[in-house]
Amino acid sequence: MSNKKHPYQRKTRKSRNYEVVEIVWPPGAKSPPHDHGESKGMIMVVSGTIYQEVFDKETKMFRLSATYGSGSVIEETPDIIHVMGNASKDEPAKTVHVYTPHLKMTDYASGELFQECRVCHGTKVICVQGEDLPIQCSECSGSGKTKYYAST
After folding, report:
1. What per-residue confidence (pLDDT) applies to 128?
2. Model confidence at 37: pLDDT above 70
3. Is residue 38 part of a domain?
4. Rounded to 5, what percent of the chain is helix, strand, coil?
5. b/e burial code for range 90-129 (CB count within 10 A of at least 16 → b)
């Protein structure tokens, strides 16, 4: 069912080890920037054309990764932050996603995915849940805290 958080229809089914999500994408609909936690997954485009924009952690920008037509299969890994959407402004699209373990996604409400390390002021840290968390900055390897704005 679509709602304010997702401008598309989602149907979810779970088994003990897998989660299957069917998404119907209205014309022009897209997901918010998100990751899939520790889940690995596969997506099959059932109908229409889907695009994916992947967050480049070096440039701190989203870049168009690819477009995928009906029958395409896309692999998703735990390290990816991306946006997916319907490439058509006229026709709906449908995808089926399979994940293991069950999804624990983070939707990134802001384009500011990286925040400043409070130890060295570098910006190579992603934190989660909008809380002050101890971090291990990849620039200084020191322990600090950072504020990160994400919603789940």
Report:
1. 37
2. yes
3. yes
4. 0, 45, 55
5. eebbbbebbbeeebeebebeeeebbbebbbeeebbbbbee
Q: Which residue has the tokens 């920008």?
A: 61
Residues 14 and 62 in one domain: yes
Please, which pLDDT band fits residue 113 given cuts at 50, 70 and 90? low
Distance CA 108, CA 129 (A): 9
Nearest to 8 by CA among 53, 54, 37, 50: 50
Residue 2 lies in a domain: no
**Would you call the peptide bond into 101 cis, given omega within 30 degrees of 0 as the criterion?**
yes
In whole angstroms, give the CA distance from residue 152 to residue 150. Answer: 7
pLDDT, one tens digit per residue, over 47-82 is 999 999 888 777 767 788 899 999 999 999 988 888
Give the structural domain span for 82: 9-105
Percent of the chain whose pLDDT exceeds 70: 66
Find the CATH number of the domain harbouring 17: 2.60.120.10
